[in-house]
Amino acid sequence: MKNQNLLEKIVLYGSVFAIILILATLFRHASISMGNDDVTSSIVFVIIFILGTLSYLMIHLGLIEILKIFTKKEVIDQGENKKVNKIVEKRDEEAENKVVEKSEEENKNKVVEKVKEIDKDEIENKNVVKSDDDELSKIFDKKYQEKIRIEKQKLEKAIQYTKERFTLYLSREDLAKLCKYIEVYSKQGNYDTITPIEVSQLKYFDVNHFGWNIWNYFNTPNNSITQIKIAKFLKNIFEELYKNVEVHAIKTRLKEAPDKGIIKIEEDITNLTEHNQSA
Length: 279
What we know:
Layout: H1 2-33, H2 38-118, H3 120-125, H4 132-166, H5 172-186, H6 204-218, H7 227-237, H8 247-252, H9 269-278
């Protein structure tokens, strides 16, 4: 390769200097034709040769500088694009957090309002010494404990589904990690504590389908979760599988080819876990 580059340079420079030499010779003959002596014509030859060489060098250096400017501009544009992508992702995450906070606040208010409405008659008819505030507090605690019980059962079914789908493709340690991460996702926890795990045999669309199934299972009218959240969740856990895939690309392909692969799209994973448990 080095010999080839050297040969190309020799041919290029040789051609350029041959052309300059021909031009200088033509100018010398022209000078002789105009009646000048040999010394003057030789001086003309030397001057034309030097000017031609300098002109070539100036053009060559100028083109190199122009190429550097365009190359530098392209690098700057790529850097700007990366900054824009980071800003967009940060803005989406902030918007998503606001939606989650607003949803949690609304859910809490709805629970309090429902407790007040449902148990209003019951509280009025009870002949108790305690104040209405104490009675409401007890009822609220009872309803809250019921809500916690339901959420726990829901999480257990999601973990059971996860075990059934990944037992053959993860080590026991990684499977335990994945089940723990499902709990983090269900509680809208922080993904910074997640450490990546490696999965064998499964393809990216298998994991996409698993992500959509989990998102669809936990996404309810009272607990709205955006798909960008599950996309980031998958990206953090299966880092090696998604190393060349952006979060937005994962989000758009969650339900792609629903019947393809080992893990398929399931509208209700509870039917699968209940069937397996009864079997």
